[in-house]
Amino acid sequence: MKADEVMSSVVAELIATIEAGAGEWVMPWTGVHARLPYNHTTTIGYRGGNVVALWMTQMARAYPTAAWATYKQWASIECQVRKGERGVHLVKWSQIERVDQSGELRSMMIPNAFVVFNAAQVDGLPADPPPAPRVLEHYEFTDMAFRTGAKVVPGRPAYSPALDVVMMPPPDAFNSDDDWLSTWAHELAHWTGHPSRLNRTFGKRFGDETYAAEELVAELSSAFTCAEYGIVPGVRSDHASYLANWIAMLKADASILWTVASKAQAATDHLFSYREVSCPA
């Protein structure tokens, strides 16, 4: 399967999940407790759009583990993918240099497809596998959030780019600590897009959908961040108004999901840069 076909397939599944939500934005990874997927042989986490693809597959197939690897990687540790098992196609971006028509050397990012299998699809797993990446504690999230230096004032959940201020109600205004923390993560994701930080912008291909795209960036970034800290996000009813925009945007260009997910990953990475040095990556 080619990279563009992988993107189209993942987007089609995401759209189907959204449309099945009957007007509510229910994250397609809710059923997997939002654990970040990681490579079993390297223990390195997957990133961006690949996380979305793996989360959706893990939920749909009810895999109990977030560990994945390629066929060759499983074989390298003497494990065997069972006959008939279906892998998940992902996309890896590689930087290459090409000479353009004017004779100038330019760098380009080229997508390539590859396939991974979940640990639940494999025989011969060692009794003592490599330790999975540690899920951090909630207090470690709040520590990171305060270290950002983001100005937070009372108010309905929002971020004001003009004032560079995050507005958040007190914790007791939410149904649970997880709802409070995931909402805070969402607004902090918006905060990273300020010109003094990531200066997040969207190209012409987004047209009038830039506001909806920014909301999707913040939602995905919040999901990535929450997964790192074991925070289970709730359903945000305010996202129902964005559903039509997101669906239209994704149907128009499947690669947009990877662009948005890349920006979301960058937002999460920026937030993680404020963690203590001793805090595990």
Question: What percent of the residues sit in helical stretches (DSSP H or I)?
Answer: 25-40%
Biggest beta sheet attributes: 4 strands, mixed
Mean pLDDT: 88
Structural class: alpha/beta
Number of domains: 2
| Number of separate strands | 9
Shape: globular
Low-confidence stretches: none
What keyword list fits this structure?
281 residues; alpha/beta; 2 domains; globular
Topology:
Layout: H1 3-19, E1 38-39, H2 49-61, E2 67-69, H3 71-76, E3 80-81, E4 88-99, E5 105-118, E6 122-123, H4 138-147, E7 151-153, E8 158-160, E9 165-167, H5 177-192, H6 210-228, H7 243-252, H8 255-272
Parallel strand pairs: 1-2, 7-9
Antiparallel strand pairs: 2-5, 3-6, 4-5, 8-9
Summarize the structure in short.
This protein has 281 residues and is an alpha/beta fold.
Structural commentary:
There is one protein chain. The protein has 281 residues and is of the alpha/beta class. Strands 1-2-5-4 form a four-stranded mixed β-sheet. A three-stranded mixed β-sheet has the order 7-9-8, covered by helices on one side. Helix 4 packs parallel to helix 5 and helix 6 crosses helix 8. The protein is globular. The mean pLDDT is 88.
